[in-house]
């Protein structure tokens, strides 16, 4: 009887704590029983808009899984990438999901919680196939760079390369506009992530371009959560920890990137 009673009390305590935690993160949501999510819809294959005008991608799948696990409904709102973090800070969203790179500055921010990694990626060059004079980062000096406004890749380039290397650059609302200008020869190369352009080329959505294997740095990415809802951040982070171990995130990476995740490089 003693053992049974102890087990019963443990179960009651577990479900009681779980219920209390759920009430904690539900109480601070922008809209009751709903995760309001900011996403760009223009960061393939993290967040993109298909021919039917519907959102799809790695981030969309991740957030829908999170919502299901937490007993919530996901509501997505599209916004240019540069407006996502300000929108989160202003309380417009519960979280943002659009391949947000984990940088020291963002991780130390008091304005939001940037969670543990859900993917390992890299800073790469995408250039036109014919421009074989760019074989790696050593060849980009004096070239015109393009990058997504509000992203981190242009900053990585300026930090990692000599100060007088890349002096001409253009910024774009999203990857769609970035790669269009690459195609139209308004820029010489795109400083972007490695996995995204690889997906676009594999799926036939990016032609006449190649993404080089020469990575300037390894990066990790995740979602960012409103700083007024730490219980939500903790609940999602706990899911990410489980999904890193049980292969859920790897399964989504296989689906959207066709790539294996090396978690040993995640920091």
Describe this structure in words.
With 267 residues, the protein is α/β, with parallel strands linked by helices. It has 2 domains: 2-119 and 222-257, 3-Layer(aba) Sandwich (D-Maltodextrin-Binding Protein, domain 2); 121-218, D-Maltodextrin-Binding Protein, domain 2 (3-Layer(aba) Sandwich). The chain has 9 helices and 13 strands. It has helices at residues 2-27, 58-70, 84-89, 104-107, 153-160, 175-183, 195-202, 230-246, 248-256, and strands at 34-39, 42-43, 47-49, 55-56, 73-78, 95-101, 112-114, 119-128, 144-148, 168-172, 189-193, 209-211, 217-226. The strands form 2 sheets. Strands 1, 5, 6, 7, 8, 9, 10, 11, 12 and 13 form a 10-stranded mixed β-sheet that branches. It has a 3-stranded antiparallel β-sheet with strand order 2-3-4, covered by helices on one side. Helix 1 (2-27) crosses helix 8 (230-246). The longest helix is centred in the first third of the chain and has 26 residues, at 2-27. The radius of gyration is 20 Å and the shape is globular. Mean pLDDT is 91; it is low at 7-17.
